[in-house]
Amino acid sequence: MTNTAAKAELLNSLHIPGEPLIVSNVWDAVTARIVSEAPGVKALATASHSISFAHGVPDGEGLTVDQALAAAKIIIDATELPVSVDFEKGYAPGAAGIEENVTRLIEVGAAGLNIEDSVGAPKAPQFEVDVAASRVAAVRAAADRAGVPLVINARVDTLAGGGEWREAVTRANAYLAAGADVIFFLGLGDEDKVKRALDEVNGRISVISNPKSVPLKRLAELGVSRVSFGPGTLGLTLSHLQAAATQLTALGDYPAELGFTY
Q1: Are 44 and 79 spatial neighbours (Cβ–Cβ below 8 Å)?
Q2: Contact call for residues 125 and 163 (beta carbons, < 8 A)
Q3: Could you give the CA distance from residue 54 to residue 31 in angstroms, rounded to a whole number?
Q4: Cα–Cα distance between 234 and 239 in angstroms, integer?
Q5: How many Å separate Cα 101 from the centre of its chain?
Q6: Domain boundaries, the chain
Q7: pLDDT at 123 (0 to 100)
């Protein structure tokens, strides 16, 4: 576990308020390798939505835990960079099962993970706060037992599911107390909400962004520690592919990217 532990330590050190880790989410070996070779990229993160769709199943643990672990290993083995795995809800109904599954995830080389606090595929309802915190604690217990300082990016779905601000902050701080390293705070759609989260949460903040979000440079200025794009990078890729297919089918010019070598 020495190499995995070193990658986890590196991943944790890259979450710097004001100098956020930017992770362009990947879903297979080739996207992992291509993104890892991009200038400035220091770590990778998977997106469960993208991996699920690539396997022809719905997001929300449409994959079995064995399939999810196999997909994670393919990505981890394709790069030397630390990889944070979107591990959905841990693929288990209770803390004991989560601890077992996270142990297996660490064994395939994950340096970090996302863990969700919603019960089903939609963002609501959520587990009760103490239950959700116990699930985060189970992740930390597995990491401690393995001797790997796994970076836990604990997701708070409250605002995205239509819940109240105070509950979201309460959950965020409970997850930090349970062993989370970073809070993946969904629903921070404007600058005021980002500022408020940074003021009220007792730890580092991770956000997901898209073209309608607070600009990246401003997120850095405010003090965010990590920015990801979830399935947006899959959408970006598929949009370019579909546009190229349309152009080629119409006997148009060859897109310059058709000559991209990898």
Answers
A1: yes
A2: no
A3: 12
A4: 8
A5: 17
A6: 2-230, 232-262
A7: 86
**Distance, CA of 136 to CA of 23 (rounded, Å):** 22
Give the side-chain half-sphere CA count within 13 A for 117.
34
pLDDT given for residue 119 in this prediction = 95
**Tokens coding 141:** 């217990």
Q: Which amino acid is at 113?
A: L
pLDDT confidence of 124, banded at 50, 70, 90?
confident
pLDDT (0 to 100) of residue 1: 64
Structure-token pair, residue 76: 């981890």
Q: Roughly what angle, to the nearest 10 degrees, separates helices 165-177 and 129-146?
A: 30
Residues 73, 26 contacting (CB under 8 angstroms): no
CATH class of domain segment(s) 2-230: alpha beta
Calpha distance 11→82 (Å, rounded):
6
190 is catalytic: no
For 36-101, the DSSP string reads HTSTT---EEB-HHHHHHHTTS-TTT-S-HHHHHHHHHHHHHT-SS-EEEE-TT-SSSSHHHHHHH
Instruction: Provide the token pair at 163.
Output: 């819940």
182 class by beta-carbon count within 10 Å (0-12 exposed, 13-18 middle, 19+ buried): buried
| Three-state secondary-structure class, residue 8 | helix
| Phi and psi angles of residue 46, each rounded to the nearest 5 degrees, phi first | -90, 165
* pTM given for the model: 0.96
What stretches of 88-150 adopt beta strand conformation (E)? 112-115
What average pLDDT does the segment 196-208 reach?
98
Please tell me which residue in 59, 86, 117, 181 is annotated as part of the active site.
Answer: 59
d(CA 53, CA 90) in angstroms, rounded, equals 18
Residue 203 and residue 156: Cα distance in Å, rounded? 13
